[in-house]
Amino acid sequence: MSGGVPASPRRSGAAPLPSDGKREALAAGSPIQPIIKDVGEIYSRLLDHRPVIQGEIRYFVKEFEEKRGLRELRVLENLKNAIFETNEHVLPKCEQAMHDNLNEAFKRLQAANDMIHRLQEREHEERKLQADKLMAREEKRIAHWEEFMKEQQNKRAEVDEEHRKAVERLKEQYSEMEKELAKYVSF
């Protein structure tokens, strides 16, 4: 508590003031001296905490600098060693393993890609072959249909011709029958 509480005259390193000397001279021979001494002790116990606080500060600094500082140095040293170990040994091993595995994976992927490409070509050829067969069947069916329609037209023409001839014959037959009947009716 520096600043707010006046320091006791006995503790200050400065030369005593002239007025302080009078006080001490008066207090030295008087019955107030034990009271002043008791008040000084009470004051130092209750209000002057500098020695206690300084001891705590020294203890805290000692703990922080020595113990924690060494612990943090050990932690930092361990981290440095771990990083060095990782950079020197683990990282190259990982890079080599990754390189080997990636090469193997790349080769496998290339093989799989080639196989898929061949399968796609086969499927494309099979589809093309099926499409060609389908087109050939369709052309054959169309040709067969056209031939069938021509045959039907020829048969229809034949039937129409036969029908026309039959109608002509029947007309002739009926006209002869009418002539014969006309002979018999004229009697």
Which key terms come to mind for this protein?
187 residues; mainly alpha; 3 helices; 0% strand; rod-shaped; disordered N terminus
Topology at a glance:
Layout (H helix, E strand, L loop, with lengths): L17 H11 L4 H14 L3 H136 L2
Radius of gyration: 66 Å
Q: How many DSSP-defined strands?
A: 0
Strand content: under 5%
- The SS-based structural class is mainly alpha
Average pLDDT number:
81
**What helical percentage do the residues reach?**
over 70%
Distance between the amino and carboxyl termini? 175 Å
Largest sheet descriptor: none
**pLDDT below 50 for ≥5 consecutive residues: which ranges?**
1-19
Count of helical regions: 3
Order of helices and strands: HHH
- Categorize the overall geometry: rod-shaped
Descriptive report:
The chain has 187 residues and is mainly α. Helix content is 86%, strand content 0%. The chain contains three helices and no strands. The chain has helices spanning 18-28, 33-46, 50-185. It starts with 17 loop residues before the first helix and ends with a helix.
